[in-house]
Design brief:
This protein is an alpha+beta fold. It has helices spanning 17-21, 63-68, 80-99, 101-104; strands at residues 35-38, 44-49, 109-119, 128-138, 142-150, 161-169. The longest helix has 20 residues, at 80-99.
Length: 170
């Protein structure tokens, strides 16, 4: 039986976009998380609503390209690079809470390494992407997390993507 961690979300103590913005520097189109909260067994879970009006939807395998060339008949899909960026943002929230909000105040967490990335299923507008962050290493200047993304509207328990990210605070 697959691990169904995503069923525990949403949590009543989930951070909304405004609360997330107070902890992350990302703004505008790059503020990707809609909600985030602590999950079971010390993990964090984040939610990304995949919107048809998002900046990437008009150009990432757009429907007009499908009409011009049926080989591209998949329609808009959420870019994998934005799945990884969404995971990184969740990892920073997880790190800030695990390392201590006061100890991480004013620190900017940047990518150091992205590894073990595997995309298993596309995510389309109208879907919800839930991401689980599991902290592997946490310090005042370093975080290492593994991530799993699931679209619960799709096949339950089958991940959309997995990756591991190491960040270093500047």
């Amino acid at each position: 039986m697959p691990n169904e961690w995503w069923r525990s979300f949403p949590s009543p103590d989930a951070l909304d976009r405004e609360a997330i913005a107070a902890l992350l520097p990302h703004r505008g189109h790059m503020a990707l998380l809609d909600r985030a909260a602590p999950g079971p067994e010390g993990c964090w879970i984040g939610e990304v609503l995949i919107r048809a009006e998002a900046f990437w939807a008009a150009g990432h395998f757009p429907v007009p390209a499908v009409q011009e060339n049926p080989r591209f008949a998949i329609g808009p899909i959420f870019p994998g690079v934005l799945m990884v960026e969404s995971a990184a943002q969740l990892g920073i929230l997880h790190w800030r809470h695990a390392a201590g909000l006061e100890d991480t105040r004013g620190k900017l967490m940047l990518f150091k390494e992205i590894r073990e990335t595997d995309f298993k299923k596309e995510v389309r507008p109208g879907a919800v992407l839930l991401i689980r962050s599991v902290m592997e290493k946490c310090g005042r200047r370093l975080m290492r997390c593994s991530f799993e993304g699931v679209s619960p509207a799709g096949e339950a328990g089958i991940p959309v993507f997995t990756c591991a990210i190491t960040g270093l605070a500047a």
